[in-house]
Specification:
The chain is an alpha/beta fold and 351 residues long. It is 34% helix and 16% strand. The strands form three sheets. It has an eight-stranded parallel sheet. It has a two-stranded antiparallel ribbon with strand order 1-2. The chain has a two-stranded antiparallel ribbon with strand order 11-12. The chain is elongated. The mean pLDDT is 97.
Amino acid sequence: MPLQFELCPGRMIGGNHPCFIIAEIGQNHQGDIEIAKKMIKMAKDCGADCAKFQKSELEYKFSKRALERPYNSKHSWGKTYGDHKRHLEFSHDQYKELKKYAEEIGIFLTASGMDEMAVEFLHELDVPFFKVASCDANNFPYLEKSAKKGRPMVVSTGMQSMETIRRVYKTVKEHNQNFTLLQCTSAYPLDPKDVNLSVITEYQREFPDVPIGYSGHEQGIYITVAAVAMGAKVVERHVTLDKTWKGNDHEASLEPSELAELVRAIRLVEVAMGSPVKQMLPCEKNCHDKLGKSVVAKVAICKGTALCLDMFAVKVGEPKGIPPENMQQLVGKKLKVDVEEDDSILENMIE
């Protein structure tokens, strides 16, 4: 059984606990804190467990030349990449305001720390867990420092090899037992042929003591629901209020109606997973009473006759007789009474 642990206060993941659903707002808030609050409320109303952002200390995440380069994309919020990113970056005080708002409405809030200084701030902010973005999954000094802080960790694994993920597992595990690995392919939107849900199974085999999850960038909800059916214990999907808004992530994001449907579908699948014990259930009784078959006499059989398979047929009989799976056990036994052709053979007829 995979490790179970408390990802957020009072919220366990792994084992038989419900899948933890992260609504990744990221930077789809357009740099507007009021839109960000609307998105947190939307995530809550749709049934997500957590609203997540992306926090960067830009001078620590990007080099000066990276920030100064011209940025002429249709998605740009400034003349340079630095101007663009600064427009989308909330201040520390704004993050405190957002966390307070999330607490007031009753949803967990965290962020991906996109550099080590951002992780320091998020630690001070007292987020319930650290989210590690795929771009930092192979940043081992970052992973080690984050793990040592003792908060649970959710690690996306896009753009990485299995060899690297084995190192990720060992590095984090050495300092922190409470983490989960998410299968992820870093493309926006993601073509279904590149999703590779089978990696979930491989992770489950390779890391049996760690809950495994899925971070999806595909369009629609079906693939994410399939991930849950495969055992994903955490799922993350980008969300938006409007897919036509400026920004690279909106096209691969879920609008409110889609997020709500995803949550409903996941909870339905969890109920449907049920028990691994195969047995006839009480809900099947009516069908069995009406259509269940039993052993009947293929020919008239006289009292005292030793039974053989040639004497039996399998039909919906009245009354219900011996079930077909027990037919072989009747061979060689004798009847205590005469049985007419096409009559049910009952247990009390057998010597």
